[in-house]
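Just scan my protein:

. . .
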Amino acid sequence: MAGKRESTTPVGKKSVCAPGADSDGYLFTFPDLVSREFIAILAALIVLCVWSMGIDAPLRAMANPNWTENPAKAPWYFVGLQELLVYFDPWIAGVCVPGIIILGLMAIPYIDTNPRGVGEYNFSDRKFAVPVFMTGYTLWFVLIIIGQFLRGPNWHFYWPWEDWSIAKPAEQQLVNLPPWLGWSLLGCYVAAGFCRYAPVFL
């Protein structure tokens, strides 16, 4: 094929040259990488097609305006957001927290600017980005699991061995912390995070 082909970042000094790399340690994006990605896409497509034909996904009954489902849950990928409503005000859970998550993900590349590890998949050269991302990723799936499997009627907490047909008494109204205490705890949390990862920037 005519024309200059794009290449990936050269293999690092501590790594071994990948099979097929030239003397400079480069691998061509096309056809080396693109062909492998294309095969991976085809394999994933085949698995999804076989899975969709083997597992039934029937529609539920027609909605009845005179009956409300209890508990009414969002799709699984939004259950984590719904679970946050238990702990925060709707404006904080629905606007502030997602906004902080998006801004945090955008800020990670600007905070962790270590030039080492570019073009490689490793944890040793990304001691800030990888732990921060994996911590948030894990906590989000914890919220999804709690909301999907451990929340019963009236959004009460049920352990897996408890029967949902046994009604639980309504929980007492939560008491909000004073603003000065809430902001102080939030500041301590942020300061602890910077102290924890301070060696990364030194």
The chain has six helices and no strands.
